[in-house]
Amino acid sequence: MKNLKPILVIAALFLLVTFIVPVLVVLPFSSEEENGGLDEKLSPETNELRTLEDSIEISVFRTQENTIETLPLEKYVIGVVSGEMPAEFESEALKAQALTARTYIVKQLSKSKADLPEGADVKDTTQHQVYKNNDELKQLWGNDYQWMIDKITKAVIDTKGQIITYNDTPIDATFFSTSNGSTENSETYWKYELPYLKSVESPWDKDSPKYESQKIITVSEFEEKLGIQLPSDGSVGVITSRTPGNQVGSVKISDSEFTGPEVRQKLDLKSADFSWVRKEEHIVINTKGYGHGIGMSQYGANGMAKEGKTYKEIVHHYYQGVNIALAEDLLTASTSEN
User: Which of 49, 157, 263, 306 is the most exposed place for a label (fewest CB within 10 A)?
Assistant: First the structure.
């Protein structure tokens, strides 16, 4: 009997624990207070990309295949950012590029499509915006495809639905590669003056590999392309004016006068900030910058991002007096009119 008593005590304790422990486990969760929860972190393929499907569809005319590719707007923006800006650029610069791409297509949706194939909203070339789909990007980027597309996709998702407006209207969100140190007024190249496309300083462009370039052509080719004949004294013209962005405004060659943009186009130069010198039977042409110089400089945007500027600061620097707005109402209005 002495040995049985400890056994009964142990059995009693076991039964007590059996009843009490479940009660202790259940009681905390019967309270209305919650101290934690199950977090959810989905992969880009399931969570982030799903958000891109909920947008208006864009029909892109693929010029090489002569077909039309239709896809959600935000996926189109990914394809444009991928085609227009290096994925190696800073994330804030990619976000700024996403806003320009989205703003452009929103504005394009409200325009006449008379110059487009039936059923198309936009072409995939520089006539509108360069666009590349996943298959093309995989071929272009090779082993770097995954990290590059993930980076650009995140930039688009982080700015989803945002566009650049002036007086509640999408702007002409022009951009280019590299400035000569300043951007240009819109009226330098186009007949119309836009208040948000004014010359601003862009010193970051000096770090661009495209900041300076040189082109050498024969005297005969120079004369033929400009439709002039150089004087026999060896002179090759005089710059008679400069633009607000310090490009060539006008240049006089022999008895002919040209605007800087005209010379750039006729001689196929990188920019309209040029100088040249004649060396025997050749003309050596030096240029600064790459592109028309109006709107956002891509290398300037990347330089700003490297200094810690946000995409909003980048946008407000290159486009004067603008706002960043959500495109939902404008998209609805555009599609209802078509």
Answer: 306
